Amino acid sequence: MPAPDLTPAGTRTAAGEVPANPMRRVAAASLVGTTIEFYDFYVYATAAVLVFGPLFFPSDNETAETLASLATFGVAFVARPFGSVVFGHFGDRIGRKTTLIASLLVMGICTVLIGVLPTHATAGNLAPFLLCVLRFGQGFGLGGEWGGAALLATENAPANRRAFYGMLPQLGAPLGFVIANTLYIALSLGMSEEAFLSWGWRVPFLLSAVLVVLGLWIRLSLTETPVFARALEERRPVRVPVAQLFRTSWRLVLLGAVSVIVTYTLFYLTTAWSLSYGTSATGLAYPRQEFLLMLCFAVLFMAAGTPLSGLASDRFGRRPVLAFAMVGAAVVGLLTEPLLGSGERGLVLVWLCAGLFFMGLVFGPIGAYLPELFPTNVRYTGASLAFNCGSILGASLAPYTAVRLAQAGGLSWVGFYLAGTAVVSLVALALLRETREESLTS
């Protein structure tokens, strides 16, 4: 009896060959999808800093409101590893394309529903509960999105350009951030504070529906990645990918997660926490629109650093580029007090630009590096789990911890916290292997 054809529909030509997706289509699908996902995520992050405190966690104490709001921000990071396991299971068994579409829908639906939530004034304690549930859903969806997008790019890329193509999903982060914050700036400038708090904050969440439809349209045009299709031809998929992963590669998951801690800490301190500190009366007391504009300018440095690091890691290797970026992140941490703490616009902007530039350098190679650590049959689950477990360690409590440290010991302690995560990630990186010359067909 002939063996069953396990190759997903749409991956074969008439001659039986597995076609590669056109690279322009791959680039568009990986970039647009993660741009939408990160847009959704940053819309929440910005709203958590600006409006969710008084709307969902009203208190006589502004700091207490902010802390409660930032605590919900961390809920999504707890959800992300669960999304990695669930979406990774199907991504490693039935294919990357279908799983990517499902993760995009989960994230998008949760984001739109946040835009129609009642506030505490209307629904009482039910309002923050529902906010936390939908925030969990956002994290669950993003937990499956990143790994699939990274694999879509790297498993379609030429061997000598995997880091460059793996960088494309990473570019979605600064693009999503700029779109989200530009929209908030326009809303803040175009309406009164009362109107913004009443209904204006909902607009970015509702507009996510338009972006999700765009992302679905692009991703539905893809076929399965040739690496995964070939793997299905050669052997049956693993029955339970996460069990196989922890039997054979638990050390890689652990070290991979620790190696990306600084990525998350650096980004969320230079964006979410700095926005909170920069606009609060007890911090720098900048006008909201001005600080958002500074962040939108600074994130362009992240957008520049990301492709630069992708190109460099294809030439010099993943580990040297990541190590350089981690050292730079530690230096940025040590300069937090003299630059950000000065309150002077020029120095504050230098700190933001430097932080986000090194964020781009450390973020770019990860799109290829983490997938390259794992074999094809558990690659979706392994890369996703490493990336998203790192989010729990590096990002879930980063803004909250920074608020506490700034209150207790001043900005220098926030800087030590950032530098410490850079050192921890550097040690983990030293214990991992270089992957530039490795094949993805294993």
What secondary-structure arrangement, pairings included, does this model have?
Blueprint: H1 23-50, H2 52-56, H3 62-93, H4 96-114, H5 120-123, H6 126-154, H7 162-190, H8 193-198, H9 203-219, H10 226-234, H11 241-248, H12 250-259, H13 261-279, H14 288-316, H15 318-334, H16 336-339, H17 345-363, H18 366-372, H19 379-394, H20 398-409, H21 411-430
Helix pairs in contact: 1-3, 1-4, 1-6, 1-7, 1-9, 1-13, 3-4, 3-6, 3-19, 4-6, 4-9, 6-7, 6-19, 7-14, 7-18, 12-19, 12-21, 13-14, 13-17, 13-19, 13-20, 13-21, 14-15, 14-17, 15-17, 15-21, 20-21
Can you describe this structure?
The protein has 442 residues and is an all-alpha fold. It has one domain (23-430): Growth Hormone, Chain: A, CATH 1.20.1250.20. It is 77% helix and 0% strand. It has 21 helices and no strands. The protein has helices at 23-50, 52-56, 62-93, 96-114, 120-123, 126-154, 162-190, 193-198, 203-219, 226-234, 241-248, 250-259, 261-279, 288-316, 318-334, 336-339, 345-363, 366-372, 379-394, 398-409, 411-430. Helix 3 (62-93) runs antiparallel to helix 19, helix 6 runs antiparallel to helix 7 and helix 13 crosses helix 20. The longest helix has 32 residues, at 62-93. The relative contact order is 0.16. Mean pLDDT is 88; it is low at 1-19.
